[in-house]
């Protein structure tokens, strides 16, 4: 009995520590987001405006693992990447270590926790390849690649 209680305490402590470490920032006040509310990312560039297509990217946890679907995206400046939580708890992070010599990277999103919750990111980066991940599941392979192409 003591071992089982001790194990539950360790698992709970590890889960809480993981959520705190990966949330990216503290929320102030008692704000809550609905499943339909899109998180507003910090602007990567002062003139980032949605002028193009909306590209849906699903964030999943299921029997096959943790993944983005699709995990390879082609977009143009002004397009909106809409990350939609399907199952699990995920975030989106364009790490500077994975995107060396790149500027204008967006800050990490907050954790998406409710199915249907979204995170919208207006593509404002220069043309090139950018790599993103879900921080809590990066070691499990939850990563993706964004190829920003010049507008026609």
SSE arrangement:
Blueprint: H1 2-22, E1 38-39, E2 54-62, E3 65-69, E4 72-75, E5 80-85, E6 118-122, E7 128-133, E8 143-148
Parallel strand pairs: 1-6, 2-5, 4-8
Antiparallel strand pairs: 2-3, 5-6, 7-8
Describe this entry's structure for a reader.
The structure is a single chain. With 152 residues, the protein is α/β, with parallel strands linked by helices. The protein has one domain: Immunoglobulin-like (Sandwich). Helices cover 14% and strands 28% of the residues. The protein is built from 1 helix and 8 strands. It has one helix at residues 2-22; strands spanning 38-39, 54-62, 65-69, 72-75, 80-85, 118-122, 128-133, 143-148. The strands form 2 sheets. It has a 5-stranded mixed sheet, with no helix packed on it. Strands 4-8-7 form a 3-stranded mixed sheet, with no helix packed on it. It is globular. The N and C termini lie far apart (66 Å).
Keywords for this structure?
8 strands, 28% strand, 152 residues, alpha/beta, Immunoglobulin-like
Q: Which percent range describes the beta-strand content?
A: 25-35%
Fraction in helix = 10-25%
Distance between the termini: 66 Å
Which fold does the CATH topology refer to?
Answer: Immunoglobulin-like
Spatial arrangement of strands, main beta sheet = 1-6-5-2-3
What is the average per-residue confidence, as pLDDT, rounded to a whole number? 78
C-alpha Rg (nearest Å):
17 Å
Number of helical regions: 1
Show unreliable segments.
4-47
Please name the CATH architecture.
Answer: Sandwich
Count all strands and give the number: 8
Under the CATH scheme, which class? Mainly Beta
Tell the overall outline. globular
CATH homologous superfamily designation: Cupredoxins -  blue copper proteins
What order do the helices and strands follow?
Answer: HEEEEEEEE
């Amino acid at each position: 009995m003591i071992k089982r209680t001790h194990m539950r305490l360790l698992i709970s402590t590890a889960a809480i520590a993981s959520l705190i470490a990966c949330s990216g920032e503290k929320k102030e006040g008692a704000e809550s987001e609905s499943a339909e509310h899109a998180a507003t990312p910090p602007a990567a560039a002062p003139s980032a405006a949605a002028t193009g297509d909306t590209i849906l990217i699903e964030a999943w946890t299921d029997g096959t693992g943790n993944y983005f679907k699709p995990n390879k995206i082609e977009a143009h400046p002004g397009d909106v990447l809409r990350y939609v939580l399907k199952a699990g708890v995920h975030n989106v992070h364009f790490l500077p270590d994975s995107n060396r010599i790149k500027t204008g990277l967006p800050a990490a999103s907050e954790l998406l926790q409710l199915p249907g919750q979204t995170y919208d990111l207006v593509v404002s980066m220069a043309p090139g390849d950018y790599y993103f991940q879900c921080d809590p599941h990066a070691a499990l392979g939850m990563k993706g690649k964004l190829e920003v192409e010049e507008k026609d």
